[in-house]
């Protein structure tokens, strides 16, 4: 598989059809969703330069990472607020949108998104041919096969809608997540758009815009080969073109 870099040396503008539909967060057996916000973004054509435009996001792989980073953000905000109130600075830092107590629910949403969208392959070889690390699907999961290993989630808390969910008797604010897969190349990950980028640090980071593109829901059955690569070469939203009627 030829690796596609996130920053090509020579950008050749070409149109990519992107169909992003932000749907409500529905996680059966985990949450009750009393409040749901939905944002729909119409089809739009984007050039390679726009697809790779850097945006500000946060990136977490585990609940512990989220809690540690959001606590750090809270402490930094508190210090800046005191300096602002004392007239030492003109403006305080922006209050962190994700709270430590919401991290567990936020990462459960990320895992649910991964389970919903990760493509499943009939054989280990077909999965590994996508340039990702793979694992067997858990027992009882249909369809059975092999899927890319979860590599973390990107979140845009300042630019996307949120939902209020009830988990364990308490309400939590959660944001839409965009999961990524572990690449077979050390130090790299594969995005929902089917492109490979360098592994980012956790917390607040800058990443290509395509890390915020929503992966399509996996079709019924076991997907054919070329599913992830098709996301980049055929245009996002047409990711499952090669799967025919939705599986082998």
Characterization of the model:
The structure is a single chain. It contains 5 helices and 13 strands. It is α+β, with helices and mostly antiparallel strands. The chain has one domain (16-71, 98-243). The strands form 4 sheets. The protein has a 6-stranded antiparallel beta sheet with strand order 12-11-10-7-4-13. A hairpin with a 5-residue loop joins β10 (177-182) and β11 (188-190). α2 crosses α3 (103-117).
Task: Name the descriptors.
alpha+beta; 6-stranded antiparallel sheet; 5 helices; 13 strands; 22% helix; disordered N terminus; disordered C terminus
Q: What is this structure, in a nutshell?
A:
This protein is α+β, with helices and mostly antiparallel strands and 248 residues long. It has one domain (16-71, 98-243). The protein has helices spanning 48-51, 63-85, 103-117, 124-128, 227-233, and strands at residues 16-18, 32-35, 44-46, 54-60, 134-136, 146-148, 150-155, 162-167, 170-175, 177-182, 188-190, 196-198, 203-208.
Number of helices: 5
Round the mean pLDDT to the nearest integer and report it. 75
End-to-end gap? 22 Å
Biggest sheet statistics: 6 strands, antiparallel
Order of SSEs: EEEHEHHHEEEEEEEEEH
Radius of gyration: 19 Å
Give helix % range.
Answer: 10-25%
Strand elements, count = 13
Poorly predicted spans: 1-44, 233-248
Instruction: Give the overall silhouette.
Output: globular
**Beta-strand level of the residues, as a percent range?**
15-25%
Query: Could you give the order of strands across the largest sheet?
Result: 12-11-10-7-4-13
Structural class: alpha+beta
